[in-house]
Amino acid sequence: MSFGPEWIVVILVLLLLFGGKKLPDLARGVGRSLRIFKAETSSMHKDDDEDKPSPTVVQGQTVQPQPAPSAQQIPPAAPVLTPEEQARRLEEEAARLRAGAKTADKQA
Fold first, then answer.
1. What is the pLDDT along the chain (108 residues), one digit of tens a residue?
2. Distance CA 12, CA 20 (A)
3. CB burial class (10 A; 0-12, 13-18, 19+) of residue 18?
4. DSSP string of the chain?
5. b/e for 39-48, b at 16 or more Cβ within 10 A?
6. With left for phi above 0 and alpha for psi between -120 and 50, is residue 16 left, alpha or beta?
7. Is 0.85 surpassed by the pTM of this model?
8. Cβ atoms within 10 A of the Cβ of 23, count?
9. Distance between CA 53 and CA 48 in Å, rounded?
């Protein structure tokens, strides 16, 4: 890897912005972030591999796993709400909670 004038400028800008004392902490934080990112992506790949059904051998016969039901066969658990609808429902719930808190304060 050759250090061209571009890299020298980048290093100088980093030194000016963060100072010599903060650069090791910055590099350490970037390293931790990269390790966490790599661990998460590898676990995602591992989870994908575990989700794939494998053939099962029962008494000398290979039994293929049954395919998962299609999306058309499974009814949705709840209707999908737009962000605006979610915000409206949260505001309504907050108003109900505030009203309940006011009546509880009056009774106390």
1. 566 889 888 888 888 888 878 888 888 888 999 999 999 988 887 776 666 655 555 555 655 666 655 555 555 566 677 888 888 888 899 888 888 887 777 776
2. 10
3. middle
4. ----HHHHHHHHHHHHHHHHHHHHHHHHHHHHHHHHHHHHHHHHHHHHHHHS---EEETTEEEPPPPPPPTTTSPPSSPPPPHHHHHHHHHHHHHHHHHHHHHHHHH-
5. eeeeeeeeee
6. alpha
7. no
8. 14
9. 10
Extract the tokens encoding 39: 């661990």
Strands 56-58 and 61-63, by their bridges, are antiparallel
Residues 6 or more apart whose CB falls under 8 angstroms from that of 23 comprise: 14, 15
Total residue length of the chain:
108
Cross-strand partners of 63: 56
Quick one: tokens of 66? 């049954």
Tokens representing 57? 């051998």
